[in-house]
From TrEMBL, chains A, B:
<dbReference type="InterPro" id="IPR012878">
    <property type="entry name" value="Beta-AFase-like_GH127_cat"/>
</dbReference>
<dbReference type="InterPro" id="IPR049049">
    <property type="entry name" value="Beta-AFase-like_GH127_C"/>
</dbReference>
<dbReference type="Pfam" id="PF07944">
    <property type="entry name" value="Beta-AFase-like_GH127_cat"/>
</dbReference>
<feature type="domain" description="Non-reducing end beta-L-arabinofuranosidase-like GH127 middle">
    <location>
        <begin position="439"/>
        <end position="522"/>
    </location>
</feature>
<dbReference type="InterPro" id="IPR049174">
    <property type="entry name" value="Beta-AFase-like"/>
</dbReference>
<dbReference type="InterPro" id="IPR049046">
    <property type="entry name" value="Beta-AFase-like_GH127_middle"/>
</dbReference>
<dbReference type="Pfam" id="PF20736">
    <property type="entry name" value="Glyco_hydro127M"/>
</dbReference>
<dbReference type="GO" id="GO:0005975">
    <property type="term" value="P:carbohydrate metabolic process"/>
</dbReference>
<protein>
    <submittedName>
        <fullName>Glycoside hydrolase family 127 protein</fullName>
    </submittedName>
</protein>
<feature type="domain" description="Non-reducing end beta-L-arabinofuranosidase-like GH127 C-terminal">
    <location>
        <begin position="536"/>
        <end position="648"/>
    </location>
</feature>
<dbReference type="InterPro" id="IPR008928">
    <property type="entry name" value="6-hairpin_glycosidase_sf"/>
</dbReference>
<keyword id="KW-0378">Hydrolase</keyword>
<dbReference type="Pfam" id="PF20737">
    <property type="entry name" value="Glyco_hydro127C"/>
</dbReference>
<feature type="domain" description="Non-reducing end beta-L-arabinofuranosidase-like GH127 catalytic">
    <location>
        <begin position="16"/>
        <end position="429"/>
    </location>
</feature>
<dbReference type="GO" id="GO:0016787">
    <property type="term" value="F:hydrolase activity"/>
</dbReference>
Length: 653, 653
């Protein structure tokens, strides 16, 4: 696999990328201006009306700085880990001293809370000091360690400071000493995967082989019989943490069979995608083509059969899990923001290894739709669950739809999504370009200025676009040497009439795995790329029961939705006429400038319906209407109301 | 209220009715031939592959006949209570000695298990002797007492034997001494309503006022502040029984506000309807028009806004509860068989008090559809949950649809539905006629021979029909006196061209509250009644999001459904053409003779769809098809597969 052909592509270091994009800046600027400061207040329990995080307080107690009891969930430490990771990425763009000082304070605190043997976990240190590693099923120790590790690697990469990294290396060494196939070591693996991909990242900065060996061990051991988690709960020390785990099904955590036998995506969607990321990493590092095939099979199962049009996953509200092929209910699904982030991370790894643009198509879909629907335009409200159809009246507590929230929430008791969104937005740059020694893959159409080394060449790129509101971009490329560079421009699956001008001259590029390939010695050249991506009706595979007889609207990577504020109540009664082409309309004032879509259709009218009749033989009338759709990512940024992605189609003879 | 006009109607004693109906006998014969003997084996834990009931074993332990531990749920005693009640009704029709001997054995056993002070409940006697009445929220003591009471009254009415009744009178006396507004008594009420309607029944046979006073007390106390259940759980003795009640919302048990302020149906649907039954009883007995208005408001809220077309209720799988107006999802609902039985019992009471046929319309809908879908044609398999749309592949354990079973189950750990179906089928006669001193209301079109006293007159009725396969019935009426009798023949809401012949001559009856009223002195007369009830497309109020753009098929009281076995897989892709009248077709071989319905339509075809694409801009093709529908009550009697009630409509311009 490590032939020249299969040399893995790399992201450009975040320090080298400066994003200045009309569409994305409205979100990315939130990270530094709003989310990081707001989350800092949250971590310190200073936000009125938001559930307390307890997170820093726990570290202060564990560090011996104060007394008190542990607060929050067993994985509460990850809040600060994801905050630090977001801070690290933000510092790559702008080395803000006061923010860095705040991070250094937290890093010192974490170091103080670290046990002598390297162990870090405030829940087990404060609350259950005798129960370390006795409940891998629910304890989240390895999951939490993974997020801290990721943060430490990110902070080291951002600042060059080693303190956090060194702390975490001591912890990682303890983990490597504790777990493994050798006699005397624990033959366990995490109840929530995450440590595996984090150990790979640690290997990437340290080149210390034992870290990926342990990551591989966790993957290889997973699902062997007898099942570790089922055995663990028979031990005396086992103490149940979550009531819902009192009956445990190994498939929930992808431990039902060995990972190489897993060809369909099962169980908890976030656990699954984090594991698939590590599987891709290990497949590459160990040149394991069989494991790569497993990754491809899992990816295909998701995107061909188990993924929402918005790039979200997890069809069941209960256990936040995958269900079965084509089971994609729109109003009771989970579709967790974190799971889409996991899918994007998995897709990025697959793109790096295989150089196929189809992975980026899905990464882009997940980022433009579900990542962004997860956060309000004010940066202070978040969706955990991302349904495709919401009727607020029916989203009641203590019902089957209790998990569906009709408005974004301030923060959550289990606060994985908001900091995960923050770190993803702050590291958006990693998705734009992928490079090897001589090739530059241009994946996402996001305006930026970037400088980096390509072997001995220094390259300067400037990408300018108003995507997704229009579909042209100008790429300026400067290189200090006239050696050959290959530019690989992604042709997205939705692009029509894809055209390239090089310095004003049309260029007919060869196409390889979904990329337009251009060889040249770019000293100072300008490429103008244009394509069409008109708003279109999109249909689901007829096997998707929930979408049969319905159409969605997409324009480029953006899925559109109807909102009550534009279309009145009862969106379920709207029938769209797909024989009339939808019209695009740029609204400068809305959401800072957005292309809305207007379609024609009818509405099932309740006007002549006797309100005292629930069922009746007289058919309701149809009224002509105009339908207005906005990008799904912006829904619920004006007022609470109904929302709908899949619109009934006016099916004619 | 107790004016002549409002004198309550009464059912005819079951002993006097002999049902010999083509449609119903296939079920009612099951009661004696299959269900009662089968349930007897279940109660004795003799059925392989079925979850053990433990029920009689618990009584044997409580009676001191054997040692061992309590088994089953806290309300396990109700299994035998409902079995005895069904046996009692069966004995009304046919005084089978060996069955009666079996019942007497059980009654002796119950008496032996009774405590000295009258208390009966094997869970608390065996397992928690110190905790009597300390957990009304979850303990189900009063609920269990209620079912035993109902059984005892039924057995007394059937056989004239007092032993069981006397046992239960002692228990009822203890309950009346324990609960009430007086100082020193407990100011509590049941966590699951049932005792209230049972105490009214005990009053009806004993004429002992304290029983309805206590029933009224339970109703009046309910929902007063501070909430009894929330206070109870603060006490030391409180011991949580069900994990899901660790966070308790009083609305679940209709104790959130006083019952007279409850104008919408809320919470657990079975609890609700059992309470509404008692509210109607008490409204009548205390001539409480205000309470009757509350009952009417609750009824209207259910049937106008919260009831499925099949007469089932409970839109949420979680907590088996009502949700909100027009929230009627078809594939994730609970629609418990017991809740439809509760609705029928409530409707029967309202019909007795108000003499309005609209209540019987709903009773009939619940009985013909959901009661019967609850039981397989073999009498040995039962549905608890009655969805209107099932895709078996998606009904997976550990998902949001885990409560939906694609096939009827043998028995259940919490086995309320099967014995409830048995007692309902065995007491079907109570719904057919309602009478006062001089009026005979004919409600249901079920062939029967009936003899009874109407004040000083002896009346003989014979009703012959092949309803619902055709819509004619012949009513022969004989009376030994020529005093005036009023016959009130229900004109169902679905009847067209309703015609009456008396002794061959057309008769134009006056219509009162949905009944054709015929005064006469019927010595030996024959009425021939006919109406049309063709198969029709029915629509839901457009506010019902789940049914917008869809049509159901009904013929008379029967709701129809599509099954995979007749229509192929993926029923969601079927579009029915409602502009073409559906055709009826009598199939003699199917289900012992059934009218099936054939309609025309199209199917969204997957034939040209690239199976690797989940979403695509190319619209799937439509194919012409013929659609076959069968009565919903018969679904899943051939083979497992998809089922669908609400069919997408081919909506035309």
């Amino acid at each position: 696999m490590k032939t020249a052909r299969y040399e893995k592509l790399e992201s450009v270091p975040l320090q080298n990328i400066n994003i200045n994009d009309t569409f994305w800046n409205s979100y990315t600027r939130l990270v530094k201006e709003v989310i990081i400061p707001y989350q800092w207040q949250i971590l310190n329990d200073n936000v009125e009306g938001a559930a307390p995080s307890h997170c820093l307080n726990n570290f202060r107690i564990a560090a011996g700085e104060k007394t008190g009891e542990f607060g929050g969930a067993v994985f509460q430490d990850t809040d600060v880990a994801k905050w630090l990771e977001a801070v690290a990425y933000a510092l790559c763009e702008d080395r803000d001293e006061s923010l860095e000082a705040l991070a250094d304070y937290v890093i010192d605190l974490i170091a103080k809370a670290q046990c002598e043997d390297g162990y870090i976990n405030t829940y087990f240190t404060i609350k259950e000091p005798g129960l370390r590693w006795t409940n891998l099923t629910e304890g989240h120790e390895l999951y939490t360690a993974g997020h801290l590790l990721e943060a430490a690697v990110a902070y080291y990469n951002a600042t060059g400071k080693r303190k956090f990294l060194d702390s975490m290396i001591r912890f990682a060494d303890l983990i490597c000493d504790t777990f493994g196939k050798e006699q005397g070591k624990k033959h366990g693996y995490p109840g929530h995967q995450e440590i595996e991909l984090a150990l790979v990242k640690l290997y990437e900065v340290t080149k210390e082989r034992k870290y990926i060996d342990t990551a591989k061990y966790f993957l290889d051991e997973r699902g062997n019989m007898p099942n570790y988690f089922l055995e663990e709960r028979k031990t005396k020390q086992y103490k149940l943490i979550f009531q819902e785990f009192s009956k445990y099904e190994p498939i929930y955590s992808q431990s039902h069979i060995p990972i190489r036998q897993q060809l369909t995506a099962e169980g908890h969607a976030v656990r699954a995608t984090y594991m698939y990321c590590a599987m891709a990493d290990i497949a590459y590092e160990y040149e394991d083509l069989e494991l790569l095939k497993v990754c491809e099979s899992l990816w295909n199962n998701i995107v061909d059969k188990r993924m929402y049009i918005t790039g979200s996953i997890g069809s069941s509200g209960y256990l936040e899990r995958f269900t079965t092929d084509y089971d994609l209910p729109n109003d009771s699904n989970y579709s967790e923001t974190c799971a889409s982030i996991g899918l994007a991370l998995f897709g990025l790894r697959m793109a790096k290894i295989t150089r196929q643009s189809k992975y980026i198509d899905i990464v882009e879909r997940a980022l433009y739709n579900t990542l962004l629907s997860g956060i309000g335009l004010n940066g202070k409200e978040f969706f955990y669950v991302n349904p495709l159809e919401v009727w607020p009246d029916s989203c009641l507590p203590d019902t089957s739809k209790a998990h569906v929230k009709p408005v974004r929430q301030k923060w959550f008791g289990v606060a994985c999504c908001p900091p995960n969104i923050a770190r993803t937005l702050a590291s958006l740059g990693q998705y734009i370009y992928l490079v090897d020694k001589e090739t530059i893959y241009v994946n996402l159409f996001i305006s930026n200025n970037t400088t980096f080394k390509l072997e001995d060449k220094s390259v300067k790129l400037s990408l300018k676009t108003n995507f997704p509101n229009n579909n042209n971009f100008k790429l300026n490329i400067n290189s200090n040497k006239d050696n050959k560079i290959t530019l690989a421009l992604r042709i997205p699956d939705y692009a029509e009439n894809y055209k390239i001008l090089i310095n004003g001259e049309p260029f007919a590029a060869g196409i390889e795995k979904g990329y337009a390939m251009i060889d040249g010695s770019f000293i100072d050249d300008t490429l103008e790329v244009s394509f069409e991506a008109p708003a279109k009706f999109i249909y689901a595979n007829p096997k998707v029961r929930a979408d049969a007889g319905k159409a969605a609207i997409m324009k480029g990577p953006l899925v559109y939705c109807l909102e009550e504020v534009d279309n009145g109540e009862n969106l379920s009664g709207i029938l769209v006429d797909t024989s009339i082409k939808p019209k695009e309309h740029f609204e400068e004032e809305l959401f800072g400038g957005v292309t809305t879509v207007i379609a024609k259709g009818k509405r099932i009218s309740g006007k002549n319906w006797d309100t005292h009749r629930l069922y009746c033989e007289h058919k309701p009338k149809l009224e002509e209407i105009t339908i207005k759709a906005i990008p799904y990512c912006y829904w619920c940024n004006r007022k609470q109301g109904e929302m709908l992605v899949w619109i009934k189609e006016l099916l004619k003879d």
